[in-house]
Fold:
Amino acid sequence: MDYYKIKFNATAHKKYLLRILRGLPPSLSCMDTHRVILTYFAVSGLDLLNELDSFPNKQATIDWLYSLQVFDDSDLVSGFQGSSTLNTELNKGQNALYKWGHIATTYSALATLVILKDDLERVHRTSIIKSLRSLQLPNGCFMGAKDGTEHDMRFVFCAACICYILDDFSGMDVDKTVDFILKSISYDFGIAQGPQLESHSGSTFCAVATLALTKQLHRLSHSQLEGLKRWLLNRFENGFTGRPNKPSDTCYSFWTGGALKILNAYQFIEEKDNDQFILVTQDRNGGFSKWVNTAPDAMHTYLGLAGLSFMNETGISSVFPDLNMSTRAHEHLLSLHKKWRGC
Structure:
């Protein structure tokens, strides 16, 4: 019987994402320095909804993203900043205190430019790759920025994406990266943020996607691969979870589901109506939240849409999980790569 099923409200989600792009609501003001990442989630969500033409400020957004680009070969800080808020009167000039790129915002900016079908001609590719190379640690992991940041599997994934988007893997020592990933596989075959840490679906996705982007999935042994698939499949209950004995969360429909997609194991989820957990977190005014009866946000909205795409929800475009963008955007990127290679 279908009468009880929650219906997908595409129109409300479009309106919610457009509101995010017009200006941050007060509840998200603390995220201002990460505005590039919020823009990436909102633009990606509109892309999956096939509503990019509803976004009237595409060229202005592209120009704004380029205004945040930092390029300085001498100081190894090249990349994209998170927000124009960092460019105050005290921080003008290339060598100002906060005039640094960050690995997460660089990935988000580049991905957004690709989704908006920019030609990336204004990207300082050589400088970004040179700075990226300086962020890799001896153990193969990556720091987020030149100084004062964490280093874990999230930034490994961002580094792999940046190299893939710019079609230049000289920005990382791939063998060291793979070694770091293999050492981060836990006793239960899930993958952690680093060696000797707890398995987590988010870090597992980042590791699996990195192996896929670098064409190194074959480095997993048969037992590691099968154990990893089993661990990921066991993360599905009424929805997807990130760790054992934790509640389902909308975002893991992508992190867990995306890893299963890359490993060609998503089809082994046999539960019926597995879209209903995501839809129950749908706000009537648009957006998806982490759990039911909590406030929606841009990240959970986009990742919820991506999860529904895996479930073949009508009206949502397909996702290329390796880069966390639509298949359509990935095809545009491949056309740029052909142009750069003179094909």
Remarks:
- DSSP finds 13 helices and six strands in the chain.
- The beta strands are 69-70, 79-80, 288-289, 296-297, 319-320, 325-326.
